[in-house]
UniProtKB/TrEMBL annotation:
InterPro entries: ClpP/crotonase-like_dom_sf (IPR029045), Enoyl-CoA_hydra/iso (IPR001753), Enoyl-CoA_hydra_C (IPR014748), Mitochondrial_ECH-domain (IPR052377). The keyword Transcription does not apply. GO terms for molecular function: hydro-lyase activity. The lineage of its organism: Bacteria, Pseudomonadati, Pseudomonadota, Alphaproteobacteria, Hyphomicrobiales. May play a role in fatty acid biosynthesis and insulin sensitivity. The gene is fadB. GO terms for biological process: fatty acid metabolic process. This is Enoyl-CoA hydratase domain-containing protein 3, mitochondrial. Belongs to the enoyl-CoA hydratase/isomerase family. The keyword Lipid metabolism applies. Keywords: Fatty acid metabolism, Lipid metabolism, Transit peptide.
Amino acid sequence: MTLHVTPPDALLACDARDGVATLTLNRPAARNALSDDMIAALTTALAEVAADRAVKAVVIAANGPAFSAGHDMKQMTARRADADGGAAYFADLMARCSTMMQAIVELPQPVIAAVEGVATAAGCQLVASCDLAVAGAAARFATPGVNIGLFCSTPMVALSRNVPRKHAMEMLLTGDMIDADSACRFGLVNRVVGAGEALAGARALAAQLAAKSPLTLSIGKRAFYAQLEMGLADAYAYASRVMAENMMARDAAEGIGAFIDKRAPAWEGR
């Protein structure tokens, strides 16, 4: 096990069992704001997960009344006292946060957000960056930067790749909160469960994924995001190459053989 399992009171609580790693934002008094330390902790944990063959799926959850309120505005405001008014810090912060969000997309394992409470600004971006999301019925989502003179430009990148254009623009231009059912209808989350049941729902979904070939999930996740950036003909050419190569994998031979023999497959991850 490569993932460093932390004590439950850590800034980012990390736990791994039965092939599922759970990363829990644990700064409830600050509404799990993405501070410098929180971004660093998530970046480190994601790197450890990526290298851990025992981890088949990942859940990102949060303690307290908010999933994440986004960037730490108090921390950001304090840097206005810098000699350059905070310009260098703000640029570095956005780069570090963007790198962390991209690490979720680039992770070999599927990542599922378990959302209770509010997920706003970069917190909403974190949800959108995950491959899948399960929301409790009381969860709410917003990109409210426009209300304080700071357009949610980096959250927009993840949001606009998950939500249809008109819905994304409405969220970004109005800053209004949307409820869990609307988020599901928009495509920001996959499932809505009872209030307080998001973590259980996400772990159940993660367990379902963890039972599949980890190699196949990794191939599929990487190909999914790659082909989205291509034109139709290029996407088909790329996907055809990926599928032909996938057919040569030991797990593909095993899975097809198990299907024909009507037995459970024994995945090897190769």
